[in-house]
């Protein structure tokens, strides 16, 4: 009989806190499509200030935040964007930049730490005076933290270097900052410094920050004016959206300071799992709240079997490949939950197939 659930599938699974629900219930609202919702305005000005940009816009999701940002920077169909071959926009956003925006992706190899080599980015930039057969490069996209690399952080120095390269060629720089606050926390730098080189950033409120819904995109006043129009085109203009923004404002107040603890809990969990026979984690690569671990080749345990055994103890995880599982730490997992999870992993991995008639 399972008595509790420890949900490590993602940081998107958190439930709104009591304070968030109270703020939602009492939020001052108005029509945000007409730009009159005072709580949305408050959230947007708060996010613009934190990120050091002129303006901000609440959007329903990170996917829409990235799509709008790419499309505003690449106004002309047939524009090209340079992005990582392992980044979220390229892999998990339904190819929206192409299917909806007519933007061509130019993937550059992502290194294990989520960076792309600067010389590879430079080599991928099209020569505007070159052959007419090439699309025109207009944008470079980074992702910080880089989810598929295990939540690794891109440094200020690296981001600045890519920003300088973009400027040199007259390109824009967009950052998918779904977990930007995790990156700033782990690096120990202010958020605005980390994204100074970027022309736009998309920040998710419903991941590490723990709000129930939404993202915010930030950039220049002109960029946000165009983004607002595009949001309406895509059906993302909402009316009394202050109800959602109120929860996000609480998330900013309550949860940013908890990210450091989430990262510590993630490291404790990674170290614990790494000590279990048959499981392997690159502990040094756990910089924020995401952990990838592998089952040793030839070990008598499979990903589906391990997921099932953990589920019997109320532990939910995300299978990634035939040998790999992802865990994501968040503020609703306690330090004692982490110890419970480690002990359940230990007992699951001591399961012997022969003794169980398999
Ligand atoms: C790095 C990254 N960017 C963007 C997104 C998209 O966010 P949403 O699921 O809110 O559309 C995600 C979602 O997991 C993500 O991990």
TrEMBL record:
What top-level class of enzyme does the UniProt entry assign? lyase
Query: What pathway is this protein said to act in by its record?
Result: Amino-acid degradation; L-threonine degradation via aldolase pathway; acetaldehyde and glycine from L-threonine: step 1/1
Which keywords does the record carry? Lyase, Pyridoxal phosphate
Reactions accelerated catalytically? L-allo-threonine = acetaldehyde + glycine; L-threonine = acetaldehyde + glycine
User: Single Gene Ontology BP term?
Assistant: L-threonine catabolic process
Q: GO molecular-function annotation terms?
A: L-allo-threonine aldolase activity
One Pfam family name is: Beta_elim_lyase
EC number of the protein: 4.1.2.48
What is one cellular component GO term in this UniProt entry?
Answer: cytosol
Q: What are the required cofactors? A: pyridoxal 5'-phosphate
User: What does this protein's UniProt record list under function?
Assistant: Threonine aldolase involved in threonine degradation to glycine. May play a role in the removal of L-allo-threonine.
Family to which the UniProt record says this protein belongs: Belongs to the threonine aldolase family.
What name goes with this protein?
Answer: low-specificity L-threonine aldolase
The record lists the organism as Punica granatum (Pomegranate)
